[in-house]
Amino acid sequence: MNSIEEKLWNYLDGNCSPEEHETISRLIATDETYQRKYQELLAFNQELENMELDAPPMAFTYNVMETIRTEEASKPLKAGIDHRIIKAIAAFFIGTIAVLLVIALANSHTNDVHETVQIPVKVQIPALKNYISGPVLKGFLFFDVVLALFLFDGYLRKKHTLAS
Amino acid sequence: MQSKFSDIELIEQTLQGNQAAYADLVKRHQRFVFTLAMRFTKTREDAEEVAQDSFIKAYRSLHNFQGQSKFSTWLYSIVYTTSMTFLRKHRLDTSSIDDENNHLQLENQSGGFKNDMAENKSRSFYVNQAIEQLLPDDAMIITLFYKGEQSLEEIAITLGIEPNNVKVKLFRARQRLKEKLERNLKHEVSELI
């Protein structure tokens, strides 16, 4: 610490060691320069402690809470989806894939596989030709297009939010 | 009326979905947050915008608040970054308000204070006027130290600097404030004569 002012500010802020504190207290009591400067800084310190805070407008809290409420209300639905539902859907697809794999293996006519894999239940591949008809295919494509548009809309919304 | 709950209790209630608890937190800290914003923006409208943004950001990240520091320290660091972003966006001149034009601006802001000199000439008025003339960082450190009940370590967290740097900056900020205060008072006295 160099200047008298620096020492005195440390003293006023309570940032000096007990030894420094004692030395400065003695200097204030005996040295006129220290005493004058100390009184000056003490008065200035008091003024700073008494300075007033600015008051925000009356409706400030209301405005903040309104903005938060609006934001909460416009949160996308996906935020509210239970994670258990997502896990259940994933389990369903994994199960379906597993079943289809078992059926495919059971019905394969490769000699190696046929001889080694023994499945206790007799399973038959369903006749898919009966299910894949023109309207079903069109319906499937229509669903795909709607899903693609929905995802694209979500992407654009996200981009817009980030930009703003 | 101030809530009887502590900041931590109000945060827990907010995280459980009680928005009224967050409204209590806003009420408790709004004056200080608004004052900090004023130190950067200099106008009430902009300060309101910055303060509002800060509270909304704090609400969004409330689940990230670890409780390792005081809520106020965490909140003030949000106010600081929001204010800095505001200054960058609006490209305000952050240099010291020493030039003549800015002096004129300040006089206009205070509602033509020359006319109200007799009523307004309290020391507190001059202190606030001098603080307005400081650099935003200096004004913020002084406000945090004297009105925010923040220690040097807490101010260091808020500003993202070392506590020793805060000590040096606080010393310099007080020196600059004292100089400005003395100059303003001298100017007023010479005008009265």
Structure notes:
The complex is a heterodimer of chains A (164) and B (193). Chain A has eight helices and no strands. The two termini of chain A are 49 Å apart. In chain A, helix 1 crosses helix 3 and helix 2 crosses helix 3. Among the domains of chain A are: 48 residues, no CATH class; 38 residues. Chain B has ten helices and no strands. Chain B is elongated. Chain B is mainly alpha-helical and 193 residues long. Chains A and B meet through helix 1, helix 3 and helix 4 of A and helix 2, helix 3, helix 7, helix 8 and helix 10 of B.
Name the descriptors:
heterodimer; A: 164 residues; mainly alpha; 8 helices; elongated; B: 193 residues; 10 helices
What structural class do the secondary elements of chain A suggest?
A: mainly alpha
What is the count of DSSP helices of chain A, taking H or I runs of 4+ residues? 8
Distance between the termini of chain A: 49 Å
How much of the residues of chain B is beta strand, in percent?
A: under 5%
- Percent strand of chain A equals under 5%
Element string of chain B (H = helix, E = strand): HHHHHHHHHH
Largest sheet of chain B: none
How many E-type strands of chain A?
0
> Radius of gyration of chain B from the CA trace?
18 Å
Report the largest inter-chain contact. A-B, 25 and 35 residues
- State the separation between the terminal residues of chain B, measured CA to CA: 47 Å
State the share of residues found in helices of chain B, binned by percent. over 70%
Unreliable segments of 5+ consecutive residues of chain A: none
Average of the residue pLDDT scores of chain B: 82
Q: What is the general shape of chain B? A: elongated
Cα gyration radius of chain A (Å):
39 Å
Low-confidence stretches of chain B: 95-120
What shape does the CA trace of chain A take?
elongated
Structural class by SSE content of chain B? mainly alpha
**What order do the helices and strands of chain A follow?**
HHHHHHHH
